[in-house]
């Protein structure tokens, strides 16, 4: 699948500290099936025929990146040591760093380093659904559980209707110039879509699946391992 007029680039924010993981090392470098977690994420993105190049945004003082051999990915993978204090700032710094190599209309797929179970079909579905879209959009899954709002004593204040509610995932896919402008004016957002929404636009929801989980807490690492092991042979 080619986009003809516009190219697709991936930006992978990987400058977080993984505080909720409570481990000594940043979670992107924790071992997952014998490799650093981030290697699974980057491997899928670099192997995708719809993505032209993968930029990974690392913290300025990252000591770990150079300890691993990234040569198998060749020039499809480019590290940028320009992470910021928040995820949004890391993405924006990455966008600024690649300005000279990018056209305004190129598509940017932002994908968390911490989502190592990304599969080729997630990328292909997203790009297929959005390539002709005016705004862009995100992978997401409909909320499956009944939702409760707590009061100050951890008792249920009320039950929130789940109709129409989705959990946002990544990749999140927007045009280069639109995304840069959006993040420049909305710094305190937890995903790219929120910044686009703040400009009055309405990104598309593209249905993914729960296997594309974010490794946030220690248990997630075991879940990710199980998902990757049981997916073998499918790809
Ligand atoms: N300043 C930051 C913070 C986060 N991220 C990246 O954004 C992704 C999603 O963020 P999250 O899961 O919240 O990662 P951490 O910030 O590392 O974790 P925590 O919030 O538990 O500290 C991760 O790949 C993380 O490395 C980043 O590039 N720069
Ligand atoms: C972008 C994201 O992964 C969508 O689910 C998420 O918002 C980022 O995680 P954070 O923990 O809120 O930084």
UniProtKB/TrEMBL annotation:
It catalyses: 2-C-methyl-D-erythritol 4-phosphate + CTP + H(+) = 4-CDP-2-C-methyl-D-erythritol + diphosphate. It is an enzyme of class 2 (transferase). The keyword Transferase applies. Pfam families: IspD (PF01128). PROSITE patterns: ISPD (PS01295). The record marks 162, 214 as: Positions MEP for the nucleophilic attack. The record marks 20, 27 as: Transition state stabilizer. Keywords: Isoprene biosynthesis, Nucleotidyltransferase, Transferase. Its EC number is 2.7.7.60. Signal peptide: none annotated. Gene3D superfamilies: Spore Coat Polysaccharide Biosynthesis Protein SpsA, Chain A. SUPFAM superfamilies: Nucleotide-diphospho-sugar transferases. InterPro entries: IspD, IspD/TarI, IspD/TarI_cytidylyltransf_bact, ISPD_synthase_CS, Nucleotide-diphossugar_trans. Belongs to the IspD/TarI cytidylyltransferase family. IspD subfamily. Catalyzes the formation of 4-diphosphocytidyl-2-C-methyl-D-erythritol from CTP and 2-C-methyl-D-erythritol 4-phosphate (MEP). This is 2-C-methyl-D-erythritol 4-phosphate cytidylyltransferase.
């Amino acid at each position: 699948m080619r986009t003809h007029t516009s190219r697709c680039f991936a930006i992978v924010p990987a400058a977080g500290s993984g505080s909720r993981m409570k481990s000594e090392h940043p979670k992107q470098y924790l071992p997952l099936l014998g490799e650093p977690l981030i290697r699974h994420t980057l491997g899928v993105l670099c192997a995708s025929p719809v993505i032209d190049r993968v930029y990974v945004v690392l913290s300025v003082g990252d000591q770990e990146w150079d300890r691993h051999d990234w040569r198998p990915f060749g020039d499809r993978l480019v590290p940028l040591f320009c992470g910021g204090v928040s995820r949004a700032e890391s993405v924006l710094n990455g966008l600024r760093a690649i300005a000279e190599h990018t056209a305004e209309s190129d598509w940017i797929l932002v994908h968390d380093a911490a989502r190592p179970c990304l599969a080729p079909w997630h990328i292909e579905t997203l790009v297929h659904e959005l390539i002709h879209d005016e705004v862009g959009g995100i992978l997401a899954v409909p909320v499956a559980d009944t939702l409760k709002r707590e009061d100050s004593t951890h008792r249920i204040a009320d039950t929130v209707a789940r109709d129409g509610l989705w959990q946002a995932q990544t990749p999140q896919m927007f045009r280069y110039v639109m995304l840069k402008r959006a993040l420049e004016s909305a710094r305190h957002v937890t995903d790219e879509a929120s910044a686009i929404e703040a400009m009055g636009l309405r990104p598309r929801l593209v249905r993914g699946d729960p296997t594309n989980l974010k490794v946030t807490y220690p248990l997630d690492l075991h879940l990710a391992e199980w998902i990757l092991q049981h997916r073998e042979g499918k790809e």
